[in-house]
Write a structure and sequence with these properties.
Chain A: InterPro entries: AAA+_ATPase, ABC_transp_ATP-bind, ABC_transporter-like_ATP-bd, ABC_transporter-like_CS, Oligopep_ABC_C, P-loop_NTPase. The structure holds 2 protein chains of 2 kinds. Chain A is an alpha/beta fold. Helix content of chain A is about 30%, strand content about 25%. The two termini of chain A are about 30 Å apart. Chain B is of the alpha/beta class. Among the domains of chain B are: about 70 residues, no CATH class; about 90 residues, no CATH class. Chain B is built from 14 helices and 12 strands. An 8-stranded mixed sheet of chain B has the order 6-7-8-3-9-10-12-11, with helices on both faces. A 4-stranded antiparallel sheet of chain B has the order 2-1-4-5, with helices on one face. Chain B starts with a strand and ends with a helix. Classes of the chains: A alpha/beta, B alpha/beta. At the A-B interface, helix 6, helix 7 and helix 9 of A face helix 7, helix 8, helix 9, helix 10 and helix 11 of B.
Chain lengths: ~325, ~325
């Protein structure tokens, strides 16, 4: 399979400034050394709790943020330090779907203006005019093309998310970074949008990087999953391997915390309860960052940082004492 | 005597655009020591009905009856109902940041609630606040009690609000989406906490959520709401093993699940939730229902009434029991 996107050593540190002179007193290490690839046509999910750096990663991949260090290659070309002008053609290939369908659409613009904006900004001529192209897009995402002149407030949350998706698709991107694309929607609408994203992927051969915290949705949609904790990837594996044989204790704990919609299984389920909250990324724990909450932590975990190693084919884990170790 | 008995509750809001029928004939009962899960999507009336129980609506037209421990709350004196809040009944809100006062410390807010119901000195109340914070798992409660809400993380704020709600041992606890804004690991901690505290104090709990996983973890009984009405209710195991309403099927089919084989495709409900100003005639769900045609018309003009289908399980649907049985076993359950 072709590698569409290659990320190595990616870091983003946000400086923290204090005092009258705004001296730099520290840094929030939101993303602290990521290595992964995204293959053409697949869905890679980034999961983790709030503050783990998954959204920052998404913004780095789309270059809405500039990385502090590391390298991002798209189709073999280094895009890490491209200028705004040099990025513009790239925006056709890499697009983003945002979480909140209420704040990501301009309330003063009609649907036609919103979805047609990419054509105007990129000065793209469409064979039968912009209006026709926009109407085709609306139809593609399951909206009525006659609603071209309506405003966002006239639509429900799920329909607004479809408008956002139509705008994303306008320039026929290759890679779409979807940041929590369904988490703001009602359950019944979530399923509609999940199915739509899958259909579009099959029809248009899209590649997704999906950022999500809902592990059930991630299992449904992704081919591979990267679990993040405090700015680092702790486990990266094929979907089935990750859900059936998770190796990192954090992944095990996350999976066991998902409520199961079956009241008969309420008792007797093996649960791992993590105590406390995620530590601050301003001052992450040394060595293995998970050791403060890990039930398997030993001295080694507090002193030596575990590297992300391939313990089974295609299954990378950063842990000294992994669960389900390969035999 | 039933502890909480809600009968034909209606909560309507007059607006410039017309009358919003948020809750339109809701009835349920809840005993002490039991947990009721109210499930529904946004706008189904689940939160509005619970705020009505607490008497927190200002400009609503409320009719029907709400009996709490033998006392009628609809039309009761406002000052009297205010006296019930905190001790008799308390609420955990979804968003702790907007439910707490930003200018007062967490401790001051718990102390205030406690001293309204208990004639104790500030020092004693403060000690109680620290105990409560410790009880809900706030680290270093001695110093944290003097923090402001913004100094807490999301999970800690939610725990502080639970501490506040539980500070007077309420007999009825209403939790409105208590974990929706939280990460799964923190959600699991909060659900454990609610469960433990209920066991300890024997309160009646209403948990409002859109997440079927959360109700399956906590609830003894489940009530499914749609368009301001109850469409199905019964014991949790019945609702999950033998759901009878097409809307409940839709919710189950919409939800990817970790405890089953991964399905290739989700089965969403078509369309969008109804406007509460123009609730569809007849069964409010009929424009989105894939099985309305099996009935042949009645769904469009006749409101289905809740009917017992056995084992304390009620459903409001025009489909016959045979039809529901067949659809569930042949079309829905095998594809979940």
């Amino acid at each position: 399979m072709d590698e569409l996107l290659t990320v190595s050593g990616l870091e983003k540190h946000f400086p923290v400034r204090r005092g009258l002179l705004q001296r730099r007193t520290g840094a929030v290490k939101a993303v602290d050394g990521l290595d992964f690839t995204v293959n053409s046509g697949e869905t890679l999910a980034l999961v983790g709790e709030s503050g783990c750096g998954k959204t920052t990663t998404g913004r780095l991949l789309t270059r809405l943020l500039a990385p502090s260090a590391g390298r991002i290659e798209f189709e073999g070309r280094d895009i890490t330090h491209l200028s705004t002008a040099a990025l513009r053609p790239l925006r056709r290939d890499i697009q983003m779907i945002f979480q909140d369908p209420y704040s990501s659409l301009n309330p003063r613009h009609t649907v036609g203006t919103i979805v047609g904006a990419p054509y105007r900004l990129q000065k793209v001529q469409t064979p039968q005019g912009t209006k026709r192209a926009v109407q085709d897009l609306l139809e593609l995402v399951g909206l009525n093309p006659e609603h071209y002149n309506r405003y966002p407030h006239e639509f429900s949350g799920g329909q607004r998310q479809r408008i956002g998706i139509a705008r994303t698709l306008a320039l026929k991107p290759k890679l779409i970074v979807a940041d929590e694309p369904v988490s703001a929607l009602d359950v019944s609408i979530q399923a509609q949008v999940v199915n739509l994203l899958e259909d579009l992927q099959n029809e248009l051969g899209l590649t997704y990087v999906m950022i999500a915290h809902d592990l059930s949705v991630v299992r449904h949609m992704s081919d591979r999953v990267a679990v993040m904790y405090l700015g680092k990837i702790v486990e990266l594996a094929e979907r089935t391997a990750l859900y059936e044989r998770p190796m990192h204790p954090y992944t095990v704990a996350l999976l066991s915390a998902v409520p199961i919609p079956d009241p008969r299984r309420r008792e007797g389920r093996e649960r791992i309860r993590l105590t406390g909250d995620v530590p601050s990324p301003l001052n992450p724990p040394p060595a293995c960052r998970f050791h403060t909450r890990c039930w398997k932590a030993q001295d080694k975990c507090r002193t030596v940082e575990p590297p992300l190693l391939e313990l089974a084919p295609g299954h990378q884990t950063a842990c000294h004492y992994p669960e389900n170790p390969p035999t | 005597m039933t502890f909480l008995d809600v009968r034909d509750l209606r909560v309507h809001f007059p607006t410039d655009d017309g009358l919003v029928r948020s809750v339109d004939g809701l009835s349920y009962r809840l005993e002490r020591g039991k947990t009721l899960g109210i499930v529904g999507e946004s706008g189904s009336g689940k939160s509005v009905s619970s705020l009505a129980v607490l008497g927190l609506h200002k400009r609503a037209r409320i009719s029907g009856e709400i009996w709490l421990d033998g006392e009628e709350l609809v039309g009761a004196d406002e000052e009297h109902v205010r006296g019930l809040r905190g001790k008799k009944m308390a609420m955990i809100f979804q968003d702790p940041l907007s439910a707490m006062h930003p200018y007062y410390t967490v401790g001051q807010q718990i102390v205030e609630a406690y001293r309204i119901h208990h004639r104790v000195s500030k020092a004693v109340a403060r000690k109680h606040a620290i105990e409560m914070l410790d009880r809900v798992g706030i680290p270093q409660p001695n110093s944290r009690v003097d923090d402001y809400p913004h100094q807490f993380s999301g999970g800690m704020r939610q725990r502080a609000m639970i501490a506040m709600a539980l500070s007077c041992d309420p007999e009825l606890l209403i939790a409105d989406e208590p974990t929706t804004a939280l990460d799964v690991t923190v959600q699991a901690q909060i659900l454990d906490l609610i469960r433990d505290l209920q066991r300890e104090f024997g309160s009646a709990v209403v948990i409002i959520t859109h997440d079927l996983g959360v109700v399956a973890e906590l609830a003894d009984d489940i009530l499914v709401m749609y368009g301001g009405r109850c469409v199905e209710n019964g014991p949790s195991t019945e609702i999950f093993d033998n759901p009878q309403h097409p809307y409940t099927w839709g919710l189950l089919g919409s939800m990817p699940r970790l405890d089953r084989e991964r399905s290739e495709r989700l089965m969403p409900i078509k369309g969008t939730p109804p406007s509460l100003i123009n609730v569809p005639s007849g069964c409010a769900f009929h424009p989105r229902c894939a099985y309305a045609e099996l009935v042949g018309g009645a769904c469009g003009y006749e409101v289905p009434q809740l009917r017992e289908v056995g084992g304390g399980h009620q459903v409001a649907c025009h489909l016959s029991q045979e039809q529901r049985h067949r659809v569930w076993h042949t079309e829905i359950e095998p594809n979940l």
